[in-house]
Amino acid sequence: MVWVESLQAAIDYMEDHLLDDLSIERIAQEANFSVFHFQRTFAILTDISVGEYLRRRRLTLAAYELTSSDTKIIDLAYKYGYETPEAFSKAFKRQHGVAPSEARKYTGKLKSYNRLAVQVSLKGAEPMQVKIVERGRFQVVGMKQKFSLVNEENLAGIPKMWDKVNGEGMDDRLFKLNNGPIEGVVGVCVERDSESIDYWIGTAYEGSAPDGLSSLEIPATKWAIFEVHGSMPDAMQNVWKQIFSEWFPSSGYKHAGTAELEIYSDEDPSSPDLYSEIWIPVK
Question: Does domain 2-103 have CATH number 1.10.3290.10?
Fold first, then answer.
């Protein structure tokens, strides 16, 4: 259960330093995760980003202080990390539904987000179909795009990249090129450094990269391969959540820290019978 304890340590660190200028790098260090893997794990388990969690918690505390003290709104704005009272008021109203100036006389309930505690299921209600496979190196060809992890730009940018690829018909080209050891189109996350990743949309391919495409070598790896059954994106998201909340805490395996893969078929993505896979490097 070291994995769970590490994640809780990072959450406790955030709570102990809510009023500080926190960086995602420092938070991830508390969990002994890379920035990308901490950010991804946190979002999968909580359905919100690290930045959104911090924002909600700060505004929850700000609301409590606003209604229980006579502290000036301008002082609260600076205390809870906002550069101007206007920015604070806008964020406050978006979360609580009323402006700070109205909150002191407001008789309704303000929205409260409580401190997180990590809870996992050692035995899931739904069985997971997973196999551990050793596979040699192979090549992926496709398109890559660099995404910043600062302010979690990757979380918004990657879905837009998929929309562009699908909208331009590039996914059809990739399916036709697929001649490697894995069938389908793949999404691949590769860490560049503490502040950025490369995201690839491609396909397994043997030979020189075709015109207009780049190539990526996936090294020989031990993989945990999870079956995904159901329509996108819900089925994929549900299995990711099971992996981190159930499988990792109880399996004895650790993430190897190299590239993860999502494997997509050319079937109808809205079909309830759609089959996909998640490949996670493990050790």
Answer: no
